[in-house]
Amino acid sequence: IYISMKTQRVLEDRLLKMYKGGQLSGAVYPGIGQEASMAGIGAGMGPNDIFGGTHRDLGVQMMRGVNLKEIALNFYGKKEGPSKGRDGNSHFGIVDKGTLMVVSPLPGSTPVALGWALASKKDKTKIVALANCGEGATSTGSWHESINMAAVLNLPIVFTVQNNQYAYSTPNEVEFASPNVANRGNGYEIPSYTVDGNDIYAVLDAVYEACENAREGGGPTLLELVTFRHYGHAGHDPADYVPDEVRDFWMNRDPIQRFEDSLIKEGLFKLEDFNNAQEKIEKLIKETLDWAKEQSDPDPAEEAIGIFATRTTPFIKNSEQNKETMNFISAITNTLDEVMSDNEDIFLMGEDIGSFGGAFKATKGLFEKYGEERVIDTPISEAAFVGAAVGAALAGKIPIVELQFFDFVYPALDQLTTEAAKYHWKVGKSIPMVVRGPTGAGTRSGPFHSISPESLLAHHPGLKVVAPSTPYDAKGLLIASINDPNPVMFLEHKKLYRKPNLKMDVPKGLYEIELGKAKVIKKGTDITIVSWSGMVGVALEAGELLTEEGISVEIIDIRTIVPLDEDTILASVEKTSNLCIV
User: With 91 labelled, which of 52, 80, 382, 451 sits at a CA distance of 20 to 30 A?
Assistant: First the structure.
């Protein structure tokens, strides 16, 4: 533990000097002064536990098994680094070593850690997730949503907060009215403690006890680790907003000095031991940084590689002889029932989807059949449960999230775009999850229940977007979306749900329609009409009118917006020379 703390300090001191000297192109967020909090978190966790951190957590990363070479490669932005050269600072994680990806929007990894805890409880693995952040991040909605959901579901997760006195430059008294962060846990009825974050023994004991309590079914705990950041928020910040008396107070409580005094007092170390350790650490860090500097940079031509994971499982086909007449909404329900029966790793999350069956009754009967652990009624907390889907997917589950209306995707966009969409591109880990729900206008639902979000979602790399127009396609595309190793946004136009003339025979059993394959639903030679979802039927009606006027219309239902079947569209336009997008 001492070597870890000392290594962190020497490393970050070196990185800070390199940054100020123009030797690093990325950012540096020094955690100097917080070493006891970080080492205590890392040492108090179990060997298989999962850590969701923030950008000042190199000490925990090292305690979890991340080595100096991996850290150095990432800070230099090298191709073989944990982020493949797609980031150049402490924003990384190595999932195989138990650390989640660190992101800049805070506390981004907290909902993801929540999802891993959810998967742990489902599988009874006794893995505990620990979600760490600074005190500034505890004012965000996603932090409160995550704690509330963890408390309601009694999940094996520990929330730690390194209160280093300043959120960037904002002192505690401007961040929250409570005298401390731990008080916030009282509103969620979870054990909450304020701990001396500069006392390695106190931190280690508190984290260990909280993790073991969670492991044995005791649910979440909130730990506030009170510490101090010796330097500014980042390398460019001189921290001149810290009063001299505050700095002096904390510098006299330096965690490494306190630990060294204790180790000498206990007879475990001698002064020369510290000096020898310092020399070895400095030599190792210099050699590692010198080595990393000479490694290969990423190739800009490969920047887009890995935005999406490649599917490796076989495509599901069906004889389609056994059929049942279904409307659009019943095709969705039938699909969810069949995939859950086929694969126990699939579960549902969303608001009012349990015994109520969902706002549009898409999950009707599934709660009674599969139980509360696979059809999870969530609090109103889109950021928490969409982020939790990311964590559960990382842990090997296949979550299907229902948004009551897709208009409510906005609170969850951070988790979708920052976490779900970037995991495979940056970390190399696939995120098999589906977010589904009603979209579209035309039902007199007003401005907050009528969004068509496909453009918003399609323009963010890493998200697939699917928009079926018939019950048959809805089932086949939804099964393909569930089996896809990427986050898929599955848009269901609410006007189609119970459209009287849209009932059709749908095969029983599993079958798939390949994502990225459009369908020519009417052949013609004069004009190409391209549409999707709720407007396909309108395009067909228009096509009939145009046919009466002697205009030959070809109509394409693209079915998936990302990936887009450009070949089918271009082949049609090459033939007709005219294009109308509806």
Answer: 382
